[in-house]
Amino acid sequence: MARRVLFFLASAAALAAACKGSSATPVDGPAGTCPLVVWYKPSTPSAYVEIVGDWNDWKRPGVVPDDAADGYRAARLHLTPGEHAYAIVEDGVVLADKNVGTTATHDGAEVSWVDLTRCESPELHVKDVATTANGDATVSITLTAGAGGAPLERSSITVRAAAGADAFAVADVQDNTITISAHGLMRGKHTLFVSAKDVGGAPAPELRTPVWIDPAPFAMQDMIIYQVIVDRFGNEAGPVPAPGSAGGRAGGNVKGVLGALSSGKLEALGVNTLWLSPLYLNPDGDFAGNDGRRYSSYHGYWPKDPRALDPRVATDESLAALVSAAHAKGMRVLFDVVPNHVHDQHPYYAAHKAWFDGTSSCVCGQATCDWATHEQTCWFAPYLPDVAWNDPEASRTTSEDVANMVLAHDGDGVRIDAVPMMPRSAVRRMAYDLRRLVDGFGHSSFMLGEIFTGPGNFGDIRQHLGPFELDSSFHFPLMWSLRGAIAHSSSPMSEIGATLDAADASWAGSGVTPTLIIGNHDVTRFSSESAGDASGDGWDPAPQSTDPIVYAKQRLAMAAIYTLPGAPVVYYGDEVALAGRSDPDSRRVMPADASLSADQVATRTFVEKLGHLRSCSPQLRRGTRTTLLATAERYVFARTAEGFPPAIVELARSPKSADPIVVTGALAAKYVDALTGAQLDASSGTLTLPPTVRAARVLLPVGDACLR
Predict the structure, then answer these.
(1) Structural domain includes residue 707
(2) Same domain, 37 and 106
(3) N or C: lower Cβ tally within 10 Å for the chain?
(4) Per-residue pLDDT tens for 288-312?
(5) By residue range, what is the domain housing residue 378?
């Protein structure tokens, strides 16, 4: 049955507004100008409103909008083609245009930014993509007329697909709408390119759009992400030895990731999205860290070239092989991008000092350069200049470099490093360019942001979410709650539900699918927190625990992120409870299978069960969450999806007695714990959960297709 491709939803209308202005209403104007209609509804009918902008150096008074319907006012402007910034001023207060999703900074204030570069040219937009599991695809594309209003020239349409595929062909043309179809496509990603001209001969920029053939519809909630630090994961020979220095290179590369992918290890965990550490060319040699020790650039976060790969971890050929293999399995690939800073060997720093903020003497977190005051101008290290996103040329170039990483290597999205260290306009600009250059407004590259926060800090994350910005952010508040409740037993299990409720309230209406983590490369490993030996020097490796309780806690935490709403992220090694103190110990090499203990193997087998359940169950992927019981020792919740009996999940620490769980709605008569096979009777409308210590239950109705 045909379905719409839902992978990483875009707001096409919002993006079109950002490109065309506050309104897409046609406005006649002088030749060689672009129309921009700014709509605004003032807070009071008597307010004085004006529109000011860069077209006349922000002079006031600005353009006074005319009265329009329903209390709105409209200003009709005719601007030269190009990029423009403007603001709405109401009774002296400078405001950004809420109808436009892209922003810039002027005189310390966030203002609106629009790209009218292509306003005179026709433009192609994806209207609809429909696919079937057996490989049929239909793509509808419309041409928006340029300044002359000329319609589509049918004979000018050309269609091609990546890798020379010729399965796509024009099936129909009606007015300015092109229908393209294909049959018998293999599972995975097929990238389609379409170009056309209008009858006057004006060409539209080539449109690029992915077409995914999946066994079932795919959405953000379906993601299970595997995070890899490529240098530490492995190479073509298998696992790599630990580097001689904890801050040195281990010798891993993307061929090692391909080996794990080809072996089926990642699919066994339910993984359908790969997140690769930065692959940019990075500098040779070692550099002094803020702790005085020497570090190499093994991690990839010190870009030395905006568009070249580092041959130590990836070449064009080896990366293409990995991406192609992942796509053939239906996996998405995310590239880690670093738009906040560069290494001082980067050509931009040599040629454009004005593109960089601050000075090398202002290193983040030092006494004279505190985070609170200097977050958006401080440098991570004296050799890592901070990009000045308020500079138009710097923002344009850096943003297009981010898009190029996805475009050049057929990626499916990005993980953006250090989001709070950049102005909000930076993320909005990257979203605009990704969707303009990579997706043709018809399909949204996934944008996952690193917004590091402490426990309970939801507001810092919320300001970067929404249709104009990030699709997702790491759920750091939940990570801290899982560590407190499970690893440390210092807070009640009910804190997990309380954190989720607070996040839901804070992020309501943003459309976010949070990514769920128990840790990452910048914090201590969860297993070492559970073992109580995570503190200490990151250059002094934590021991790999032999305590079964540590592994029970790891399994319980992994069960939480695999069963809660959002997208679970497995940081490489978490599936085997890899130990680690702070960086660089949290980034130790992935161990060989032969070196794993029985507890580590059992933990990986458990995570594989979770991967199967999450991948299979509509309730666990997309169901709503309802708290059923929240006590000091238990957190129990239901995941409910339309058309299915609820799945029941219990996360238990060490309850002393059985607790009856009252579940309303279409409860199944009997449930099976999908992790152990035990059956529970719910025919009376209640479930009694026998005590279990540091364990999870995932209850599915008897006969559920996901039981095995």
Answers:
(1) no
(2) yes
(3) N
(4) 999 999 999 999 999 999 999 999 9
(5) 340-412+429-445
| ∠ Cα 409 414 417 (to 5°) | 125
CB 272 within 8 A of CB 332: yes
3-state secondary structure of 328: helix
Clarify whether residues 352 and 316 are in a common domain.
no
Per-residue pLDDT tens digits for 184-225 = 999 999 989 999 999 999 999 999 889 999 999 899 999 999
Rg (C-alpha) for the chain, rounded Å, is: 27
What is the total count of domains within the chain? 5
Distance CA 616, CA 596 (A): 28
Q: How far is CA 126 from CA 21, 83, 416, 441, 442, in A?
A: 19, 23, 26, 6, 4
List the beta bridge partners of residue 680.
671
Q: Is the pLDDT of residue 4 over 90?
A: no
C-alpha to C-alpha distance for 359 and 300, rounded to whole angstroms: 22
- Retrieve residue 262's tokens: 């080809």
Residue 635 structure tokens: 């957190």
What pTM was computed for the model? Answer: 0.94
Omega within 30 of 0 (cis) for the link into 203? no
**Tokens matching residue 627:** 């708290």
Where would I find the H helices in 292-346?
A: 316-328
Residue 39 DSSP label: E
Amino acid at 704: D
Instruction: From 539, 644, 545, 547, select the one nearest 586 (Cα to Cα).
Output: 539
Identity of the residue numbered 605? T
Q: CB under 8 Å to 385, separation ≥6 — which residues?
A: 341, 342, 344, 346, 349, 356, 357, 358, 360, 379
> Is residue 1 situated within a structural domain?
no
**DSSP 8-state secondary structure symbol assigned to residue 582:** S
> 566 and 469 share a domain?
yes
**Domain identity same for 505 and 642:** no
d(CA 655, CA 279): 47
Strand partners for 178: 141, 173
